[in-house]
Amino acid sequence: MSGNKTGNNNKSQSNDKSQSKIRANRSSDKGARNAGSSTRMQKPKVSARALAVKVLSAVEQDGAYSNLELNRRLKEAELSSADAGLATELVYGTIARRNTIDYYLERFVAKGVAKLQPWVRSLLRISVYQIIYLDRIPEHAVVSEAVNLAKKLGHQGISGMVNGVLRNMIRNREQLHIPSHLPAAERISLEHSHPLWMVERWIRQYGEETTEAICRANNEPPAVSVRVNTTMTTREKMMEEMERSGAVVEASRLSPDGILVRSGGNMALTSWYRDGLFSVQDESSMLVAEAVAPEEGQRVLDCCAAPGGKTAHMAEKMQDRGHIIANDVHAHKRELILEQAERLGLGCIDAVTGDALDLNKRYPEASFDRILLDAPCSGLGVIRRKPDVKWSKSASDIEDISSLQRELLDCVAPLLKPGGILVYSTCTIESAENEDMVADFLSRHPEYQAMETSNWSQPETRSWQAVNGGVQILPQYAHSDGFYIARLTRTVN
To answer: Which residues act catalytically here (predicted)?
Structure first.
């Protein structure tokens, strides 16, 4: 009995071991299958060029904003910094040069660029952009990458067409130029890649030479500049700290609070930014708060305030002593203003939500020492930063927005105290939205008159000619955004 029991135990142990081995093998096989399944479920790695094609196609087909679409896809793709930089260059560069690129492509695409599928058109555009404007990428590499991408996204026929078009363009590079005999507006439109209607309009306003300078400047990479929070530090101390960290910086020639960052990475990701020591802002935009010239203890109205950069700058100018009402029509944008104020440690900003056209119903007449109307506009002064603006706007947009600007000025005018200052600003270079708008306002409001805009402290700004109390800053003046800033004062009740 005992022997049989022992034998059964041994057999049982042997069976247990066998079963364990089988279970282990099965578990191993299952793990391998799961690992394989997990690998298959992982998102395929997206190349910089593929990402750029997807962004450009979304912009063209769906009307997506290039900056938002690019940022979304970059976050999803998790590219290396080098590849993310290439994707960014391809997206913005291709949009900026679209007119010129399509002009060249038309000679080599048999059925015409317009008849191509959107993604194929985008692929050819980024490839031509690399061939013409990016010297660091060999032509054979551009063609090879484009053909491989065409195979992945399409089929053999499309890849063959892409290969043929690009190789033919490279063989006939001498044809890739803009004829010099064209009429001035058409030549500028093609050479500097702007819509013809826009170029013709600017030639009427500024003349041929200035218009060409505007278009050329719009295709230059935008400068990076930050505005020092003077309630926490000084520009000199901030520059010293940045230089010690390895950043290459220089003092702004336009704003006493500005620093140009020539090298140093993304400023919005630094501890200085998080701690509220500075804000990222264009130099031209910094001049708005300086024109408002708010003083400590004053009551200030910012009519269209989001995202709050100019609001915060005014609060800093006042050393956070006084009261700023920062209004915006959108509730979610009010949150952006509050976030700015909290990051910068500013307590004098009261963010509110409402239509700016109703401000005269919400506040008593003559209740503000300073008013800033940074008006909604066509945005044609910031094409360098937002190149898709030039392809999405039309002449009718300018007429429509001008009507709103006129209403806004009339609405807020009664709210200023006699002797106070109203600053009207836009980020456009359109006279209908700028000096013509102010001239029309002054003709209908005898209680207002234009002031000198030359209260700016930097020598660079003193040569800019004022018209109707306003200065038109063109993008070629100081490698900053195109802006218009006018200072008006109320003389009587």
So the answer is: 427 (nucleophile)
